[in-house]
Amino acid sequence: MTTLPFPIAEEPDAAMLERGRKLFAGQTTFLKGVVAMSGLPPADRVEVCFAGRSNVGKSTLINALTGHKALARASNTPGRTQEINYFTLADSHYLVDLPGYGFAKAPVAVVQKWQNLLKAYLSGRPTLRRAFVLIDARHGVKAVDREILSLLDKSAVPFQTVLTKADKVKTPELEKVIEQVRASLQAHPAAFPELIVTSSEKGEGIATLRSTIAALADS
């Protein structure tokens, strides 16, 4: 039997599910918004970041993971929020919300400043264990996504693809998008070889993502 590239992650066993549940049952608090490398908090714990184009559902996913309805706030205007937002998770993790990329309405100078900060952050954060790149299950990988995937390759940051809004797509269409995503990822050496399919609204894949983040403390 042929093994598919980038299979969908299986549900973790009971012990790992419980570990993920306990981690995210702890307190999650907004720490700070960072606009320059000098403002980063101490690199003293496991760190994961979330990247995705504007309106991919990143803030909604972070809120679903943490169980807080308004912890991460979305902006409807691409390029408006130019901060790297840090959240403390329990006493062991940082969750890092990167601004949505796709800057059609942002001034060129703002785009350049953000891109420079993003490159510096990805290349210079020693405790960053994994980037989770969110891809809209209705659309698949777009050109703007390929830019961030290439940047992660160049920065040698392992990234895992998380499909969002899976409940908005019928099964045949979702399968086509997953195939497109798999084909796109094969060109990226930094890609972790499993996909996570989520629906923040329905709760699909949330427990798996929590457990995945909890397990990174072992690596």
UniProtKB/TrEMBL annotation:
Gene3D superfamilies (UniProt xref): P-loop containing nucleotide triphosphate hydrolases
Cofactor(s) needed for function: Mg(2+)
GO biological process, one term: division septum assembly
One GO MF term attached to the UniProt entry: GTP binding
Swiss-Prot/TrEMBL keywords: Cell cycle, Cell division, GTP-binding, Magnesium, Metal-binding, Nucleotide-binding, Septation
InterPro entries: G_ENGB_dom, GTP-bd, GTP-bd_ribosome_bio_YsxC, P-loop_NTPase
Domain EngB-type G: residue ranges: 44-219
CDD domains: YihA_EngB
A GO cellular-component term linked to this record: cytosol
Keyword Signal: no
NCBIfam families reported for this sequence: GTPase_YsxC
Xref: PANTHER family: ENGB-TYPE G DOMAIN-CONTAINING PROTEIN, MSS1/TRME-RELATED GTP-BINDING PROTEIN
HAMAP family in alphabetical order: GTPase_EngB
Function: Necessary for normal cell division and for the maintenance of normal septation.
Family: Belongs to the TRAFAC class TrmE-Era-EngA-EngB-Septin-like GTPase superfamily. EngB GTPase family.
UniProt-recorded name of the protein: Probable GTP-binding protein EngB
